[in-house]
Amino acid sequence: MTMDYKTTVFLPxxxxxxxxxxxxxxxxxxxxxxxxGLFDKLRRQSAGREKFVLHDGPPYANGHLxxxxxxxxxxxxxxxxxxxxLGKDAHYVPGWDCHGLPIEWKIEEKYRxxxxxxxxxxxxxxxxxxxxxxxxWIEVQKAEFQRLGLEGxxxxxxxxxxxAAEAQIVRELGxxxxxxxLYKGAKPVMWSVVEKTALAEAEVEYHDHSxxxxxxxxxxxxxxxxxxxxxxxxxxxxxxxxxxxxxxVAFGPSMTYHVYRIDAVAEGSLAVPGERLVLSEDLASQVxxxxxxTAFSVVxxxxxxxxxGTVLSHPWxxxxxxxxxxxFPVPLLPGDFVTNDTGTGFVHIAPGHGEDDWRLGQAHxxxxxxxxxxxxxxxxxxxxxxGQSVLAAGKKGEYYSPVAKPVIEAMKxxxxxxxxGKVKHSYPHSWRSKAPLIFRTTPQWFISMQxxxxxxKALAAIxxxxxxxxxxxxxxxxxxxxxxxxxxSRQRAWGVPITVFVxxxxxxxxxxxxxxxxxxAAVEAEGADAWFTSPPERFLGNxxxxxxxxxxxxxxxxxxxxxxxxxxVLENGGWxxxxxxxxxxxxxxxxxxxxxxxxxxxxxxxxxxxYDAVLTHGFVLDEEGRKMSKSLGxxxxxxxxxxxxxxxxxxxxxxxxxxxxxxxxxxxxIKTQVDIYRRLRNTLRYLLGALDGxxxxxxxxxxxxxPLERWVLHRLSEMDGLVRQACKDFxxxxxxxxLHNFCxxxxxxxxxxxxxxxxxxxxxxxLRRRATRTVMDLLFTCLTRxxxxxxxxxxxxxxxxxxxxxxGSIHLEPFFDVPESWRDDALARRWAKIxxxxxxxxxxxxxxxxxxxxxxxxxAAPQVVLAPDYEIDLDGLDLAEIxxxxxxxxxxxxxxxxxxxxxxxxGIGVVFRxxxxxxxxxxxxxxxxxxxxxxxxxxxxxxADVVAKGGRG
Length: 953
Hints:
One of its GO terms (biological process) is isoleucyl-tRNA aminoacylation. The protein is built from 27 helices and 33 strands.
């Protein structure tokens, strides 16, 4: 009778399921972490350690999380967990940006939908609604962030609208007041006529926009050279609405200009035969083509420098309805910004509506006219166009300039228009309203880049900071090097006010620390509303008369708020965090946003950056590299991915991607992550099954282990070095590729494959099996800890499967301290050769299996022929065990022509032979001694001996 030997074989046993069920598992683990107080345990455990502080860049509390939030916060969590497991105290305090336009805009939308005027609402009531709105979304986002597995101080986050935070913002502004860095001035700023406020560069995005273009004649009334008398200078502009603000025309002093006579024109041309036009030599041909001029002659040639002193008249000087409103001289002025790229070689200058325009006007004493009101309509005093709008939304939502047509008609009326058209170009838009912006010179509050050497300090701080990737340094350096003064005022309602008093007669800013301290104390007790609800006497005290001082009503730029977070989180927040931060980490757009404002604020008040290192990541695109949008239907919601697949799949996508560049995500990419995850999970499951019942009494010292196990320990040593270097570099995608390869190739396809026989069939006391189980225990320990920062839920699940009932957590464990003695480069080189040999054998067997001449590799006993000069150390090794065959015959000599070989492994040939003997009913090897062991005729000698000793291994 044939005996059933199944009960004598060690078979893997584990409750760790093959199918993860992450959407159900993860919430249970989150609840467990909360129940055991994981965050507090980490803090107590880490007391006295070196602190690692990744200071959180605050997201806006104004809606559900998007995939970019998931990328950012998961990456932060991975880095924090890595640093914690390296033995540091990684205390993470999440935070939120609560002030500013993004939130105020949401409240305004509610009023607009109800047909109400926001400006008619009591400001304090409006601010209360903004505060409540932000508070609601903080709680929503907090839950969504935690669902991603983020560990942090969620019970004590920071918010910019907390009274203590608002008070510190007031104090930080006060430092610029006291050091003279804050001043009021009229400069051109990017202005939103929709939101009725100035915007920061970080609140601006660029989109294609269609603009009306006009070519306009400016008659010469005072000529610097006789050749210019009676001619007209031609300008080209894409902003016809700025023509009422024209006060000068710029030329390029190093360019060459010609005076052209128009000889003939096509039908419909607005050019007049016989007239003379002044144009750039390089651009004239295109201008003539656009204006339908069919023949023209050069009358004179002039260097740009010869135009200095020429005076023009405004085209509308003679307009009958202008009532003399444009009867002022328009000087020709040299401008280095004038180029031959497009246009006519002349730039019309409206000092109130352009950076270059304003600077040129200031240099030549030209006053800035007020022509456009905050809502984008012309002032009543503007001739011809009073009350008209410079910008409006069309029926399909696109924006256009409704005054462009009236401007064109007014130019035609005085014979000034040479041509008009349209151009599509990149143009600044508000990132909130999506409306185009205008440049508008208005009185605003600025922080000087020159006073107190702020620019120089910021540039020096950039060079002292570690930038990851390194090119981030160049990007922010050029921004700071060339940026204008920082406009910190906004004409809004929700935010921290500019808590400044200005003398009504002299315009002098009050610089009194006692006043600043009183304001800050009131704000800390009652919030920033105190500035609006308190009489000025509360702050001024007894030293000043309120009737002499004006209380500023503008709101601080929200980027100043977030730029101060280092002051009220790291320095004075009560979390016990050090200053400066170890790391700031945000998207690459924050070179002009939070990294930038934090740098300027800190350098202006403390002389250095608030961070030691800055890491930037790219943006998230769809699988085809397109920007995500609802209209394209390609938006990937992190909530949906988590609900269907689990947060660990999103985390795997983040750390498996090169986030120094833009990342892609979509159904196929997620599917790939699921497949990778499954292979990693199966590795953990196999180890758990193989370690069933493992005890310390089984553990074997590495010195007593076979070479194969010592090679695995060497690989663990190499992987440990990669893990620690990746943590240092904040770069994980290459590491995770190595980890996956280690699990799939080195372990599953090689080590596990070879040692399955020993694990299943050797006696429990056998040294080879003890070595295998010892190494698998070390593998499990290292892998679960290495995976813990990345796959935080799965690593915890595996830890608990190995330690059922434990009150601990994998996240309370450090990375395993791999002994230096495990490193053996000579052994690694030896096994590289052995694995090459195994590949050749496996390749030969695959051909036989494909031809169905064998089913299992154990049916084979191949002949391996090594070339006489082929060097390989096989001492003490069983090649049949390594190749998983029943026998291998090893020979040296010339490789037969019929032998199987691989081109990349010269010097090895394999000749297939079938194994002789019978199949062992326990280990399935085909061996000659099967049937020769009394009482166990169906077993080989090894298996018969194990069964005789008690059966199961």
